[in-house]
Amino acid sequence: MAEIVVAESVESDAGVAEGELKSRAARKRRMDLRKLRTAFNGIQKKMRRAESNESQPPGERMCPGYGMTSMCGRRKEMEDAVSILPRFCPKLGYHFFAVFDGHGCSHVAVSCKNRMHELVAVELESASAAGDDGEWKGLMERSFFNMESELLNQSGGADGVECKINCKCQPQSINCDYVGSTAVVAVLTPEKLIVANCGDSRALLCRGGVPTPLSIDHKPDRPDELQRIHEAGGRVIYWDGARVLGVLAMSRAIGDNLLKPYVISEPEVTVTERMEDDEFLILASDGLWDVVSNKMACEVVRVCLRDNRSKKTIAVAAETESNANATNNVVEIDEWNNKQGGSNKACRDAAFLLTKLAMARLSSDNVSVVVVDLRTGSCSSNSNSSSSSSSSSLLEL
């Protein structure tokens, strides 16, 4: 009888153990399925966002994240101006970014900030084929020409036109005719990045970790610019560097009426197809580029955007500031900020760090930097509907 009880007990224990194993296996399967479902739900949400962005009207598409910082630095006055207009052309949903580095006075740079995007938008609305590279070139050239024509009228340079400018350089005097500004303008579309540059501000694209300049500085000693100036009857005099007639350290600018026709406002335009490995765009005045290389600028921004270590690196940069008497007037744009892009803290930190780095390296000029995160408003691509259906079928299993 005892043997029968023991046998039944062993069989009972074995049954319990087998039941526990089955229960654990079932529980593990449920947990795995739950994880799998969560993962696929995340994928589907991303795909739906991409499809939604693609199907949205152009004016409602996602804006890339951006940030800017502008510092007076060691100069007595701030002559830089920055313009950021997300969806500046509502019908097309394009985005506008620009840096203007004034000289002689700030009124040309400020006028460009207030008007350039409007002139570009007018040209865009009247363009027959804005997607064509040649059309983009003509469009930007006309915008720059119209901008300078407006300034000529405002300064009283045109016959019969009353002066409309009121600033320290005393318009209609010889001083006002030496006032001008560089201009580096970027128009961002879902497929392309258009850059128009006039002067020595610069646009730099980081693509796959490699710095890719989208503009070439207009310096008087650049071989083709030197030849153009000589053919126009001008001279380049080396006075604290190469200068047009010994005055201006750049060969192209908006304004500078007394240096015509040697200094021209015609921009050089590049049209770049956006790619999957495009990371970010930097626009900055020469106050940065005089002391920071393209490679260094890209590395700094990559650290801020990738590792989110901005606070620590900014603190280090602040401690290494070599001149405690430098004036650091910071102006930040944070007016347009929502979940679908806009002013972005990582981009602002990256721009701020670059300006602090320029100050630490003893830049003597105003420093203005714009950083645009191209990953948040990425290039358009055809969504794959079969991927969505396959995800659903896997979940049903």
TrEMBL record:
List, separated by semicolons, the cofactors it needs. Mn(2+); Mg(2+)
Enzyme class, first EC level, given as a word: hydrolase
Q: What organism, scientifically named, is this protein from? A: Zostera marina
Superkingdom of this protein's organism: Eukaryota
Please give the name of this protein: protein-serine/threonine phosphatase
Question: What SUPFAM superfamilies does the annotation carry?
Answer: PP2C-like (SSF81606)
This enzyme catalyses: O-phospho-L-seryl-[protein] + H2O = L-seryl-[protein] + phosphate; O-phospho-L-threonyl-[protein] + H2O = L-threonyl-[protein] + phosphate
Cellular compartments per GO CC = nucleus
Question: A GO BP term, please?
Answer: regulation of intracellular signal transduction
InterPro entries in alphabetical order:
PP2C, PP2C_BS, PPM-type-like_dom_sf, PPM-type_phosphatase-like_dom
Keyword Ribonucleoprotein assigned: no
Instruction: Name the Enzyme Commission number(s) assigned to this protein.
Output: 3.1.3.16
Per UniProt, the keywords (alphabetical) are:
Hydrolase, Magnesium, Manganese, Metal-binding, Protein phosphatase
PROSITE patterns, per the entry: PPM_1, PPM_2
List, for all copies, the residue spans of the domain called PPM-type phosphatase. Answer: 65-374
Q: Which GO terms describe its molecular function?
A: metal ion binding; protein serine/threonine phosphatase activity
Where is the region Disordered? 377-397
**Record has Hydrolase as a keyword:** yes
Family the UniProt entry places it in: Belongs to the PP2C family.
